[in-house]
Amino acid sequence: MEIRKVGVVGCGLMGSGIAEVSAKAGFDVVVREIDQGAVAAGRNRVEKSLARAVARGKLEESSRDEALARTIFTTSLEKMVGCDLIIEAIVESLEAKNELFTQLDGICSQDAIFASNTSSLTVTDMAAATSRPDRFVGLHFFNPVPVMKLVEVVRTIATSQETFDAAFAFAGAVGKTPIAAKDNSGFVVNLLLVPYMLDAIRQVERGVATIEDIDKAMTLGCGYPMGPFALGDFVGIDTLYRVAEIMYEEYREERYAPPPLLKRLMSMGRYGRKTGAGFYDWTPEGPVALKL
Ligand code: CAA
Ligand code: NAD
């Protein structure tokens, strides 16, 4: 089960990073987005991140050029044919993901491995929609992908040992530290991280402290690189909201329920850094927190 060519579907925050680390590691990469505008935005994300690595002296210019030359950006799903591993990083919706995997299942070779980068859905629910549940695995990367070292490799009850081993080895080959996780909603990290982030929102709603002060508390008091609100804006309010809904639906425990303030941000289209505003307004002068 040799992986040489990698397909990445979705080139937003996560897909762009997964494409970048795969190309830097020497894999041929095909990236699919929904339209030409999204292709241009996705390519720009990869190029900017590679330029940043060159500027910081972490990557040779020639390696950047080679990585880009190994990467094809397209709107055509048919270009996924011939990929040995296809990693999905589209919106966190089971319906959207299953529509995609059903299409891919119809055109890709039976040998190809399918992987999802889902944050909170169960991989089983996607694998079951295809004719290859044995060749279906979770590959959960972390944001920002070029920096975060962990990948959760998720095995369902149907994933073959061969598939799991190939996915585990792939995560290592792109420079990450893989861990094995069972296919429960949230795997390991989000099972702990998501309730923490949602709880921070509830504390603000209760008036315990301001958004800035809770962020200061967790960065200065605990040494976290970002407080929970800056992290929410970094992850994406839309993604965090969908993740909370999915985990709440799965466990029916209040700690996973999306708090009202998160819903209000969704209604206002304040999706975080990606739209310029979330818990903070991300102004050129610096972040300005919502006053509640
Ligand atoms: N892409 C590529 N590289 C990046 C980057 C990006 N978006 N952002 C930062 N970097 C690199 C920088 O180039 C820099 O590298 P060097 O030190 O080698 O020069 C390094 O990261 C540190 O960057 P900065 O000095 O600019 O900024 P920082 O010290 O504030 O770090 C951060 C930025 C790495 C994002 C840090 O704030 C951090 O670790 N934040 C927490 C991230 C986190 O918790 N991620 C998990 C989110 S949850 C998730 O992913 C799962 C899910 O399913 C929702
Ligand atoms: P994002 O909104 O930044 O990007 C999603 C991209 O997918 C968009 O560019 C969209 O145009 C594209 N897309 C949608 N449908 C498509 C299709 N059928 N074909 C091709 N492209 C399509 O989202 P993201 O933050 O990159 O999240 C992607 C996935 O990764 C989600 O499942 C999310 O839960 C998971 N994830 C997110 C984070 C995070 O911190 N944001 C971390 C780990 C995992």
Would you mind describing this structure in some detail?
- The protein has two domains: 5-182, Rossmann fold (3-Layer(aba) Sandwich); 191-275, N-(1-d-carboxylethyl)-l-norvaline Dehydrogenase, domain 2, CATH 1.10.1040.
- Helices cover 46% and strands 16% of the residues.
- The protein is built from eleven helices and ten strands.
- It has helices at 13-24, 36-55, 61-69, 94-107, 123-127, 161-173, 189-205, 211-222, 228-235, 237-251, 260-267, and strands at 5-9, 28-32, 71-74, 85-88, 113-116, 136-141, 150-155, 177-182, 280-283, 286-289.
- Helix 1 (13-24) packs across helix 2 (36-55) and helix 7 (189-205) crosses helix 9.
- The protein is globular.
- The N and C termini lie far apart (54 Å).
- Acetoacetyl-coenzyme A (CAA) binds at residues 49, 52, 56, 58, 119, 142-144, 146-148, 189-190, 193, 225-226, 231, 235.
Please name the CATH topology of the largest domain.
Answer: Rossmann fold
* β-strand amount: 15-25%
List the domain count as a whole number: 2
**Shape, per Cα inertia axes:** globular
- Total strands: 10
The number of helical elements comes to 11
Order of helices and strands: EHEHHEEHEHEEHEHHHHHEE
CA radius of gyration: 19 Å
Assign the CATH architecture of the largest domain.
3-Layer(aba) Sandwich
**Average pLDDT:** 98
What is the class of the largest domain in the CATH system?
Answer: Alpha Beta
Ligands bound here? Answer: acetoacetyl-coenzyme A, nicotinamide-adenine-dinucleotide
Structural class by SSE content: alpha/beta
In CATH, the homologous superfamily of the largest domain goes by the name NAD(P)-binding Rossmann-like Domain
Give the low-confidence spans.
none
Gap from first CA to last CA: 54 Å
